[in-house]
Amino acid sequence: MMKIVTDSDPLVLLECLVAGTSHRPNLEKYEPKLKIGQSLHLTREPDSKYDDWAVQVHTAPATDPANVWLGYLPEGRNETVARLLDAGKNVSARLNHKSWETDWLHLDIEVLLHE
């Protein structure tokens, strides 16, 4: 069955894996709380020494005490999203899939542009 898209639906900008999850501490304890379909918060890291377009993926805004930093949008696929965030656009993400592959938490997300 085909989904009907309305003007109020967000535009899917990117489907990707979250990079760097193996470098985030305590994800093995937090992973059971991650729910498919949940919203994720994106935060620019403009002063990153590794990637000029670094975008962090979080479970909530950084000011929220319940926030968990999951990783990054992949380098080389993040410039458009970074530019939109820099311009103050309403961009978020949604968790589509999660699974463990050895000690790596595989998180598949959609990046969404809201009007």
From TrEMBL:
Molecular-function GO term, any one: zinc ion binding
Listed Gene3D superfamilies: 3.30.70.2330
Keyword Cytoplasm applies: no
Pfam family, one: HIRAN
Domain HIRAN: 14-89
Keywords: Hydrolase, Metal-binding
Superkingdom of origin organism: Bacteria
Protein name: HIRAN domain-containing protein
